[in-house]
Specification:
By secondary structure, the protein is of the alpha+beta class. The chain has a single domain, classed as Ribonuclease Rh, Chain A (Alpha-Beta Complex), CATH 3.90.730.10. Helix content is 32%, strand content 18%. The chain contains ten helices and nine strands. Helix 1 packs across helix 9 and helix 3 crosses helix 4. It is globular, with a radius of gyration of 19 Å. The chain starts with a helix and ends in a 6-residue tail after the last helix. 38% of the residues are buried.
Amino acid sequence: MAVVSVINFRGLFLFVLTSVLLNQCILGTEEKNDGGILIEGSNTLIFQIPTSQEQDETGYICSKFSFHFCLIGYFGRPKNPKARVNARRDSDLLDFWELIGPIHRKINWFSFSQHYGAEFGKCCRYQGNTYLLFGYDNGLSPQQYYNRVTDFSATTLTSSGHSLKRLNIIKAYYDPKICANIIVRLGFGQGELHLSGSVTHTPFIFPPHGNEENIVFFSYAGIRNELTFDWFKKHVVCVAQSWICREFPLQKKKVFHQNEMSRRLLRENNTTTNRSELFDGFHQ
C-alpha cells in the first residue's frame, strides 16, 4: 500500500509541476454543493483554514487569530427530530457560555462576528448562537454539545456506538496557476463526503500553514482515505494546540503522512517547492 501511495503521489507531483510549467490544466466541472448537506444521522466537526481575503473571507478572519486553524463548530442532525423540543431549558444558553468560555481559546474557537464589538475573536455570544442553532434546536443539552465540540478523538459517539471520524466536508477553490483545488475548510464525522467549490478530477492541495514550507497534495479520488482526522490532528491541530494530542492520542496504527512523502519527492526531483513559489501572497 505504501509503494502504491509513493507512485501515485510521484505522478501527482509531476503532473502539477508540469502543469505549472506549461500553464495547462485538465479541467473537470466545478462542484456547487454548498449548504444543506447534512442528512439525518450525520454529523461533522468543521475547521477553517486561514487564507488571504481574496481566497476566502472566513479564512481571512481566521488568519487574524491563528496561523493553523479555527474551529467552526459541531453540526449534526439527529435521527429522531421529534425529540428535539423536549430537551430544551431556558437556562441552556447561559449554561453553555459558562462551559465554553474557559476553553474556547484552547480549541481555537474564536468569535468571527464583528457585530459584537469587543467580543470579536473572543467569546461567547458567537459560540452560543452556534449552539442554539445546532445543539439546542436539535435537543442537545449544553453539556452534550460541549462534549461534542471539544471531542478530538478519532471516533465519535453515534446512536449505534462509536464510529470513526471520516472526512465528510471539503470547501475549496480552484487555482488555475497550479491546476489544483486549494482546501479552505473541512469537516470530520459521519456521513457522505460533500464537496463545494472544487473542480472534479483535479488534485487537492492542503495549503502551508504556520512555519510549514511544504505543499501537501491529495488525489481527487483518494482524498477521503488519505486526509484522515489523525493526519489533520498531527500536522495542523496539535501544532497549534499540543495538549489535544496528549488528551486525544493518535491511533496506534500507522497512517499515511503526505508531508513525509512531499519532502522525499522534493529531494528526489531536486526541486524547491514552497509557499513563496506556489502561493504568492497566500498569507498577506
